[in-house]
Design goal:
- By secondary structure, the protein is α/β, with parallel strands linked by helices.
- The protein folds into two domains: 173 residues, Rossmann fold (3-Layer(aba) Sandwich), CATH 3.40.50.2300; 180 residues, Rossmann fold.
- The strands form two sheets. A seven-stranded mixed sheet has the order 12-10-9-8-6-7-13, sandwiched between helices. A six-stranded parallel sheet has the order 2-1-3-4-5-11, with helices on both faces.
- α8 links the parallel β8 and β9.
- α7 packs parallel to α8.
- The chain is globular and about 60 Å long.
Length: 390
């Protein structure tokens, strides 16, 4: 125990010195996330620096598995947390040391500094969640050829969006259009006809979520033989991924004007919509992970199986099955997206109904348009009326 305490104290001192030094390899210092910290939930993921339950020989060298956040926290109940849970689960099951680094700011230099800090600490596998890491990982994969990188929600490129994935890197993306489709389909079958989509920045992943949501609502309305215009979707991008008073005001206005349920696909903006939903006694659809614990107003979540994909790719590395140089897509076909039916509140839309529509996505009987370059008004919908709000 004394030895472990001494090692932990030494690591704290190393991180502190790295953060204060300005000449050689500056390490970004932790900073609070812009979103308000959600209330603690049972079985929260391990905190920074907590060792795996069965420490390995790598203790003396540093941490084998490291996650670098996009600036947010590992308990954000969203993208960072989903990725962290997959990494921590593998580390705890197989006795690997693990940790995370939270940069003080966003930007290529800050991310590269964090990567260097992880490498110097002995990292064998580095997980980076978010498209903001695409350019930094393109640089880092060449700088550190003996380190494996798992880039979640993106593929490396040099700023030109032309994929360039080295053998020590795997890019993981998701069929967000299918997850959004399931959410929209379920919402209409559950009886909601006045819907909203509030996305963060109009990046490809968020656009696909929104486009899928509209298409799912439309198909459900068509199957229910509803008349044209009987389902409405207010559609808006907030241009940020953190809470703002004006987002709360817009959500409140939507609810007061008759919107029954808003699909919130924008990370921290959820925390601006929750108070509006609670005050209006209306509903929310969450995103990325099961967000039902955040509020009773969240009826389901359009999930990417983040923890599953991170766990799988780390396992591939240790099992000599590393898919280096590849772009791997998690979709309905490989159970990479879905709704958390066990925690959803969707009325008559139950497990049997969900399984039936999910099977059609798997078989290809339902194909969701994933062209994020389109405007939402260009989607081929028959029933849904789209109110695009700038």
């Amino acid at each position: 125990m004394k030895k472990l305490l001494a090692i932990a104290l030494a690591l704290v001192m190393i991180f502190a010195l790295a953060a204060c030094g300005g000449s050689e390899t500056p390490a970004p210092a932790p900073a609070p996330a812009p979103a308000p910290e959600p209330a603690p939930v049972p079985e929260a993921p391990p905190s920074a620096g907590q060792e795996a339950t069965a420490p390995s020989e790598a203790d003396d060298e540093g941490h084998e598995l490291v996650l670098i956040t996009d600036i947010g926290t590992i308990d954000d109940r969203s993208f960072n947390q989903g990725s962290w849970e997959g990494l921590a689960k593998y580390a705890q099951e197989f006795g690997k040391t693990f940790n995370y680094i939270q940069p003080a700011e966003q930007g290529d230099d800050a991310y590269l500094n964090a990567i260097d800090l992880a490498v110097q600490g002995g990292a064998k596998v580095i997980v980076t969640p978010g498209f903001l890491f695409e350019v930094p990982i393109h640089t880092a994969q060449a700088m550190y050829p003996n380190v494996q990188f798992i880039l979640i929600d993106g593929v490396p490129h040099a700023g030109d969006y032309a994929p360039d994935i080295a053998p020590n890197t795997v890019g993981v993306t998701y069929a967000e259009e299918q997850a959004g489709f399931l959410a929209g389909y379920a919402a209409v079958y559950a009886g909601y006809t006045e819907l909203g989509f509030m996305g963060g920045m109009a990046v490809p992943a968020v656009v696909r979520f929104g486009h899928g949501f509209v298409q799912g609502a439309d198909l459900a309305a068509e199957e229910l033989e509803m008349s044209a215009g009987s389902v409405t979707v207010n559609y808006h991008y907030t241009d940020v991924f953190w809470p703002l008073p004006e987002i709360n005001t817009m959500a409140s206005t939507w609810y007061n004007d008759g919107i029954e349920c808003i699909f919130v696909a924008g990370g921290g903006i959820l925390f601006s919509v929750i108070p509006a939903a609670e005050q209006a006694d209306k509903y929310i659809i969450g995103v990325d992970v099961d967000q039902s614990a955040e509020s009773d107003t969240i009826i389901t979540s359009a999930m990417k199986k983040l923890s599953v994909s991170v766990y799988d790719k780390i396992a591939d590395f240790y099992n000599d099955a590393w898919p280096g140089g590849q772009h791997v897509v998690y979709s309905a076909e490989n159970d990479g997206v879905g709704l958390p039916m066990e925690s959803s509140s969707l009325g008559d839309f139950g497990q049997a109904e969900y399984d039936a529509v999910f099977a059609k996505l798997v078989s290809g009987a339902i194909v969701v348009d994933d062209d994020f370059t389109k405007d939402v008004e260009e989607l081929d919908v028959k029933i849904v009326k789209i109110n695009s709000i700038g």
